Please model this.
Amino acid sequence: MSPSAGNLIVDGFDLISIAKEYESAGASAISVLTDFKFFGGRKQHLSQVKSNVKISVLRKDFIIDEYQIYETKYIGADAFLLIVKIIDDVQLEDYLWLAKEIGLDVLVEVHDKHDIARALKISPYPKLIGINNRDLETFLVDINRSIELCEILPDDVVKVSESGINSREDVVKISNAGFDAILVGESLMRAGNRIGKIFELLGKN
Model:
């Protein structure tokens, strides 16, 4: 889901069924939006999903203080998204250390070369980095953003391409560029057959 797509959480939204579909289709993890203001998400959504699947659950929200990190652990998440662009360098380092201390993984999200430089100057630098293909100012999406920035990341970083991945062709292009994983939201939520869509993206059709 994305701001430009509007709120995709509607009446009749059965997040447990959706989560189980993702898991059965082969998803490695499930990302759950918990931001209410922009997405209509709720923290209890994540707790409900975590109680019904065996795979890892990622909290997707605007994390800007330490309380939210402790909260993330409390509601049952295995990991959370940390957007470099909305926090300063001190926060970035402190939040990564706190997450390690309480047993949470962190998907560090970057949007450009400056974000990557900030993330990599931390010692030790994060080993799980996601490149968001969406321009936060225009909301336009271009997967070439991932491809251009991927080569900057060290070999030992698990590389994730986020947003705008809609077809098997996109996945192959991303994979050939050196990515290890993709984070897909909107195209799955809009699919009439979500399991079929995951199979398509994974090349199982």
Observations:
- The first strand starts at residue 29 and ends at 33.
- The mean pLDDT is 92.
